[in-house]
Amino acid sequence: MLSVRRFFMYVLRTLRVHLKKIIVILLTVQLLFITIYALDGWSLITDGSWKSFTAPFFQPLTPTTKNHTYAVFDLKSTDSITRLYDKMNFDTSGKWIDTYTLKNDLLTMKMGPDKGRVLDSVDELTYYNNDPRLIWSVVLDHLLASDSNEYEFSWYDWASFESLNKLIALKDTNVSCQFLCESSFDKGVLESVEKEIQEPLFITNRNKYDEEVWYNRERGMLNSNSVRQIVHDHCKENDAYYKGAPFELPFIIRDIYGKLRPEVYDFHAKNHLLYSGAMPLSLTVLDSDKDAYRINLKENDSSQSNIVQSNILQEYIKRHANEMQNGDLLFNHTSVFEKFLRHKSTKKRKLEIEGLDKTIFTKEYLDLSPSDFHFDAKTKIGELEAKLRSEGLSLHDTRYLQSLQTSIRTAPALQKKYFAEASEVADATAGGHHRDKRFLSLGYNLLNDPQEAEARLSSIIRTFQKFTKANGLISWLSHGTLYGYLYNGLKFPWDVDHDLQMPIRHLHYLSQYFNQSLILEDPREGNGRYLLDVGSSITVRTHGNGENNIDARFIDIDSGIYIDITGLSVSSDAARKYMATFVEEEESSDRNFTTLIKDYKLDGNEKFDEVDDSEGFAKYTVYELREWVNSHPDDFDKSEKDLVTKAYKKELVMSKSDSPERELPPKQRYLLNKKFNLFNCRNKHFSGLSILSPLRNTMFNGVPAFIPNRPITALKNEYMVPSRYGFLTFQGKVYIPELRYWFSFPDVKKFANLQLREPKITRLESPLNDLKFSDVNLLLTNMMDCNFHSVFASLFNSLNSTVYRLKELEIQYDGGLSEEEKGSLLKTLRSGELSKNIKSPEKDPILYIYERKLWGKVKEILNAANIYNIVSQVEKEKIEEFVKVSKNLFERNLKDFNIPDNDNDKTVIDLNSKGLNLFGDNKKTTNEIFGSDKKY
């Protein structure tokens, strides 16, 4: 007892002696914390909005405006971190997790020697990250305040230049043209840049530069003479930079050089887009899938001006000065957007296109007519020229007229390739052959993060479908996209693009009104920005030299991912052999297609000139053109001669093919295809009117879409479609019908522990091809234990979509239901809350990247055990939710399938018991549903 008292006395004496020192130390630590917080160094962040998540010891008060509260988060709170993980993985809405403000975000420097410094004014800005909340708020408010429908566009405000800003932020490190024109980065310069910006210049492939063998090999392949030539041909100094102008880089990429590593190409192409990229003709703003609004862009021959350079940001701040709180201002973009939609001036921006019907998606079926697959280009040219003389043309109409005038003079054999893919990028994993050359970007970590890739692919197809619905444009799913839809209402997970078809008449609507327009997703739903790009020769409807099989693309400007759009029309291409059966069925004749051709009298000129829009060389057959080129060799360059030769060889191959029309001249092929309603795209994929029409209303990726009338017939012309809906293996992938999802087979082997190689993972009791419901929970739990978190996130987020598609399948392929009953039940299904509230199966990619960065900072601060507990808690709840829905689905007791009768408020139609039971005891016999098309 005495020793304890002595010990405490000793401690007290020591404290008295050193009290002043202790107080000094405590004050110093406190001052240090305050300094670090002021310099934004506490969290080592790269994103201004991250500040609201960090600085746990100096949490600011939650400021408010008259209408809004600033969202502030505390990392000391487990609830905040749990919410972030939940939102990052399982909330696919368009809502942001925090708010964007003037002081905390825009004016706080994020990198470089000034990192953490808070500017006094936006006039001091030399760069900023174009957060959608900032850009939407400022641009829309400007349009409303000025009562103008014109806006001074800059790519800097709409495409992602966050990586390029790291170079703009440099003050001491010199970067030159050579840095972006060598196939790989110079490591010395790279490290100097990163030291100054205080973070990696890029993430994807960054670790390779620390591998000495790899780096020496890459740099050893450089040739100094060729690099100098590349610099000379593709890059020049930027005079504005050397004059001290803000937002400038020291060099300008004049023309994209393709043979670079993807991390170099990313910066190279972005520089080219910023300084040399062609400006869109307009902005098309979507109000969900209801309407579209046109914002015209000021024609500016000089450099583009961003919201700071054009002064509209400064004007915005002045107009909203009374909303300032403690020198800060909230940018609430959704509030501004809704004000924009309600404003009287917005009515003049609303697109109402004569000839298009916005109600087409209210119908169960959409009838197409042969006239949808014909287009009289010469008549259209005459109409536009007359309008030009009498009242003038809009910019879109002017460009469309120019395109038509060029197109009708373009010989199919002389067409030069219009779309350019980034196929030369020196790394096959970059997927450059499936990315637009102008916009290929690695995003945050696109090559190594399948979740981001899936987010982009989901966003692009959802936005396109909303765009077509809002304008009454007709298109339908085709090729691999249609094939993937068949099983679960989603694309195949291994597909890297989407394929859509549309009738030629609607392709011309697309070209006339939307070519070169930047299509902007409703900011309340997502942040998609897509360039609609239509080729310059859409009146050419034959395969020609094969360089222009795609008519249009819908391109994600932040990644280069695109949707391929092809128009179907009557053409003079020879019909494929598989169309013979279709024609014979349509004609209800005992004669085969070859006999029908012989019996149809053709004189070679029958009405052909009435529909032949072409002029000059475009009227020549490939044989005639080749003969002309050979007799006038000085009139054509080598590339043109090669294109003609290529087309000639393709025609020779066709003449020896099994096509029933192979022996007919082009004019007669055209008339025959017209007679039998045979339509094709420029890649010679043929279809018939009754295969396509009536188009059927459905849901794809959670949004309305059309599919062909006979999807199985359409698909079997291209693929070997298995007849059974059930467990299926395909190219290393496996479809598990109980989960309604495709998985990598090696992944399934692992989390099902089929080979007993995972000692901590419980092996399934039932086989995968006959999975019992009791094993669903176990399979999902195993997924998490094997770290397949992103796989489960995709599975969970697509739950609404796949459940909807399953019920649709059960109704469509129930042979016991009449066609009228099927139509009525499908209409009921589409009128229910389930279809109206199907959430997006993937996150918005911009939100995903934003939240992923925040989570990365959480992982730097929080220990692994705490993170594990948070993740496990969230995912356990999601697994329970998924299992509950699955159980009710298998037991045919799902609440979402109890749908009120629109004709009688007191009646509820129970769809649970309607249609096939694809998981019943007799599923091995009832699941043979894809053998042929069924009427429904």
UniProtKB/TrEMBL annotation:
It comes from the Eukaryota. It is a single-pass membrane protein. Keywords: Membrane, Transmembrane, Transmembrane helix. The keyword Protein transport does not apply. It is found in: Membrane. Residues 468-719 form the LicD/FKTN/FKRP nucleotidyltransferase domain. Pfam families: LicD. InterPro entries: FKTN/MNN4/W02B3.4-1, LicD/FKTN/FKRP_NTP_transf. PANTHER family: FUKUTIN-RELATED, RIBITOL-5-PHOSPHATE TRANSFERASE FKTN. This is LicD/FKTN/FKRP nucleotidyltransferase domain-containing protein. It comes from Saccharomyces uvarum. The gene is SUVZ10G2480.
